[in-house]
Write a structure and sequence with these properties.
single chain; alpha/beta; 9-stranded parallel β-sheet
């Protein structure tokens, strides 16, 4: 059963209640589970630029891409990891529920999520989508591109990922979203401003590198990702855009840090580098929308990957 958001849109389900450790009701004791409120019409009148969380429960794209399914359960797992964290944010956070992709109805689910994201952005919110496989990214793009918040602005897409996800396939999947974005931008007479941090050369074919070159994609290989190199790369990308959509595929990090993903990384980018990039993005003032994708709770160890996802979201909103 859905419920209404401030944008008069209906998402598929409301999330289970947030939970966590209880130390007291006072502000100094607050944790995420005590601070997050359901997103309702009154939320639009809250403090400046609140964050609104929306789950995208999908692994249809992962299945199409021949990956390990289970990412549909990720939004609940990330909320569970966020709930116990101490709440130090200076913004309000609201939860708008979940868009659920049933069976193979991926495109319909992406469109529903896109409409919800557009409405939330138009209302002045910072939107946070909890994926879902990386097909989440095209849902995010539909929402960002359809929002009045990007009109007249240079939009950039920054992907923290071991993969380009530029596959040219007849059926969209978790491996195709950024080629879909590039084609959608071209249809509108624009060029996709797309950059990737963490590309694994052995896990991307020559065809994918050629596609990236043809589209003018900027990228940094995982083996090049020192703190200094990451900072310079992101700063140069941010300098050429006005608004940023950040997407984090958790398989960008080593399998020891993020085991609960469809494609665990043998090498990966160290967590401190990824965390520093998140702080840099948050400090830029250009972050419009973010999502976190590819958590697969079925393969997680001690909720390690979910906790990393929660920590990065907390960093980006701080």
């Amino acid at each position: 059963m859905g419920f209404k958001t401030a944008t008069s849109l209906t998402v598929d389900v409301s999330p289970a209640p947030w939970t966590g450790r209880f130390d007291g009701d006072a502000v100094e004791h607050r944790r995420w589970w005590q601070a997050v409120a359901p997103h309702e019409t009154s939320a639009a009148e809250a403090a400046s630029r609140p964050a609104v969380v929306l789950g995208f429960c999908s692994d249809a794209g992962v299945l199409r891409n021949q990956g390990r399914v289970g990412a549909a359960a990720a939004p609940a797992a990330i909320r569970s990891a966020l709930g116990p964290l101490a709440f130090h944010l200076d913004r309000d956070v609201f939860d708008a529920g979940d868009v659920v992709v049933e069976d193979d109805s991926l495109e319909a689910g992406q469109e529903r999520a896109g409409r919800a994201i557009s409405g939330l952005l138009d209302a002045g919110n910072l939107t946070v989508v909890l994926g879902g496989g990386h097909e989440t990214a095209f849902a995010s793009y539909l929402g960002v591109a359809g929002s009045t918040a990007v009109r007249g602005k240079r939009l950039g897409v920054l992907n923290l990922d071991a993969h380009f996800d530029l596959r040219d396939e007849p059926t969209p999947s978790s491996g195709t979203p950024f080629l879909q974005m590039a084609r959608a931008e071209a249809a509108g007479g624009r060029e996709l401003q797309y950059a990737v941090v963490g590309i694994s050369e052995p896990n991307n074919t020559r065809t994918l590198f050629d596609t990236a070159q043809r589209l003018g994609v900027k990228y940094l290989l995982d083996e090049q990702c020192t703190p200094e190199a990451g900072e310079v790369f992101v700063a140069e990308f941010l300098a050429g855009i006005d608004a940023l959509y950040l997407t984090i595929d958790l398989d960008v990090m080593p399998a020891s840090v993020a085991p609960g993903v469809s494609a665990p990384a043998a090498y990966g980018v160290p967590l401190p580098v990824i965390s520093a990039i998140c702080r840099q993005v948050a400090a830029s003032g250009k972050l419009l929308h973010l999502d976190v994708a590819e958590l697969n709770p079925e393969f997680d160890i001690d909720s390690r990957t979910a906790k990393v996802a929660a920590r990065l979201i907390n960093t980006l909103l701080a």
